[in-house]
Amino acid sequence: MIVETVVVAIWVMLPAYIPNNVAVLAGGGRPIDNGRTLSDGKRILGDGKTWRGTAVGTAAGVFVALALNRVHPFVSDYVAADPFPIAAAVSLAFGAMLGDILASFLKRRTGRNRGAAFPGVDQLDFVIVSLALTAIVATGWFFETFTLAVLVAVFVLTPILHVSTNAIAYALGLKDEPW
Ligand code: CTP
Ligand code: MG
Q1: pLDDT for 128-141, tens place per residue?
Q2: What span, in angstroms and rounded, lies between the C-alpha atoms of 136 and 118?
Q3: pTM
């Protein structure tokens, strides 16, 4: 059933969807790269990647996974996914932040300034790294949960959700650019 697949895809990806949005709200303070540049004269990561945004974003993602685990017994008839092992909660949340950080590294190396759009990378960086990390640290749960159908749903839905949440955050004045 397509609805069932979509429900699982969104449910299991929520701990990876939340961190970047929370980082937008919680970000600020010391940038991870401490203002340093590489030999190309560009910042390593830029002012948009901060310790506070990364820490609070990751914590929020882990919190969401644990909250979903609490809710799971009541909705298990509708959500065909096993509860998040703690390792998966952490890897989904931290992997999402790490993917976004690696994307900023790539953006700076390709001459894109902070806030510049990088179509494709902006929408999928966090999915690829959070899934890869989860496959490594929670292998059994990962392959149990991410069937081919769920993976297809994730790769179709994520860019749509990403573009729409960022457009909303921009419209609300929370984000400087709509991507
Ligand atoms: N943010 C943060 N720490 C992170 C990720 C995001 O503090 N690890 C905050 C920053 O305030 C950032 C905002 O969230 O400006 C928006 O995130 P994003 O669009 O990823 O950063 P940009 O400022 O657009 O920078 P970049 O070009 O490097 O993506
Ligand atoms: Mg940005």
Answers
A1: 999 999 999 999 99
A2: 27
A3: 0.96
Any atom of ligand 1 within 6 Å of the Cβ of 61: no
Tens-digit pLDDT profile for residues 17-70: 999 999 999 999 999 999 999 999 999 999 999 999 999 999 999 999 999 999
Ligand 1, residue 27: give the atom nearest the CA: 7
Position 5 scores a pLDDT of 97
Q: Which residues contact 179 (CB under 8 A, 6 or more apart)?
A: 117, 122, 163, 166
- The whole-number pLDDT of residue 130 equals 98
Looking at residues 131-156, what average pLDDT do you find?
Answer: 98
Q: Using CA atoms in the order 149, 141, 3, 74, what is the torsion angle rounded to 10 degrees?
A: 170
Q: Which residues of 156-165 are buried (b: 16+ CB within 10 A; e: fewer)?
A: ebbeeebeee
Q: Is the CB of 15 under 6 A from ligand 1?
A: no
DSSP letters along 46-88, please? -TT-BHHHHHHHHHHHHHHHHHHHHHHHHHTTT---PPPPHHH
| 42 CB near ligand 1 (under 6 Å) | no
Q: Are 79 and 7 in contact (CB under 8 A)?
A: yes
Alpha-carbon torsion, ordered 57, 59, 60, 65, to 10 deg: 130
Kindly state if the Cβ of 108 falls inside 6 Å of ligand 1.
no
